[in-house]
Every structure is written in structure tokens, then in C-alpha cells.
Amino acid sequence: MIVEIEGTGNGYFQVWYQYYQNIQVAKHRFNITIDQLNTTTDNIQQLDECVNYVPVEAYQLSGMALVEIFLPSGFVAEADAITDKTGRIQKIERRFSDTSIVVYYDNMEPESDCFQVTAYRRYKIALHLPSYIKAYDYYNDESYGIKQYEGKVLQLCDICEDDDCETLSC
């Protein structure tokens, strides 16, 4: 990098850089637990989720904390998708055509904040990738946690129709 500065007076120069970090093995500052609840149909996905902050020092809280829930392929969230179990959620936002939900907290404590997510299958999709949940401190990008989970997976024979089923031996 080459920088040239000419003239007289005061100035401010800042250098910022970012490097690759393997977030799967990094030490997380947020713990996330996910419990997939049994439902009577494959068209409803219910998750019990709990998140807590892992402080560096005793009695420390996070800054504003966000929990992003990315739903499995084919599932969407409706307006009442989140059930707050602890009463600490400040705001709920749906994104990406209702396939992602963001839950806002003023701060997060070492004690767990729990909520339930309900999503509905809008599209039948087989062989999807795992979904994930990410929790992070909005003001400190080094404080985060991430957890992967499997949604309700459909097999190819579950979504085939008419002549397609014969070629798959369903």
C-alpha cells in the first residue's frame, strides 16, 4: 500500500484490515442451544432456542445482542413466529422473504434467554443444506456464536409428482 499526503494542516489517517477466521473453531462468546420439537406434520418446524452470553469478566453483559435464525429451505416465518419465554425481546424482524428472523435484545446476560420459533413449509424442497443460528454483539464483531441444525428433511419421493415418481422408484 502506498499513501502520499501533501499540504499543511492537521489530518487523520486510519488503517483497517480484516483476515480470514474459521468461525466454526473460534471461541464463541454466545452459547446457543436448539431443541427441535416434534410436530404432527412435516409442514411445521418448531424450535426451542436458548442463547446466553459468555462474559470475559464476572458480571459483564453484552452490548445490544442480535440472534439471527436462518430457516431450512422451503420454510417461512409468519408475523407471530416467535414466542418470547423470558420477556426480554425488544424487537423481531423478518428478512429475505420471511426465510430469516432477527431477534433483538438490549443486552444479553450469562443466564439463558429462551424463545420458540414456528415456521411453516411453503415449498417442498429435498436435499437441502443445514441451517444455522447466529448470535452476536452488534457493537463488537468479535463476540458471536453460531450453531448449525438440520430442519425437517424431505426425501425425493416425498415431493415427486406423477411421472417423476416412476423414474425414482417411489
Descriptive notes:
The chain has helices spanning 156-159, 163-168; strands spanning 30-37, 44-53, 65-70, 75-84, 89-95, 100-105, 113-121, 131-137, 140-149. The chain has a 5-stranded antiparallel beta sheet, with no helix packed on it. The chain has a 4-stranded antiparallel beta sheet with strand order 1-2-7-4, with no helix packed on it. Helices cover 6% and strands 43% of the residues. The protein has 170 residues and is mostly beta strands. The longest helix has 6 residues, at 163-168. A hairpin with a 6-residue loop joins strand 1 (30-37) and strand 2. The radius of gyration is 21 Å and the shape is extended.
Name the features.
4-stranded antiparallel β-sheet, 170 residues, 43% strand, extended, mainly beta
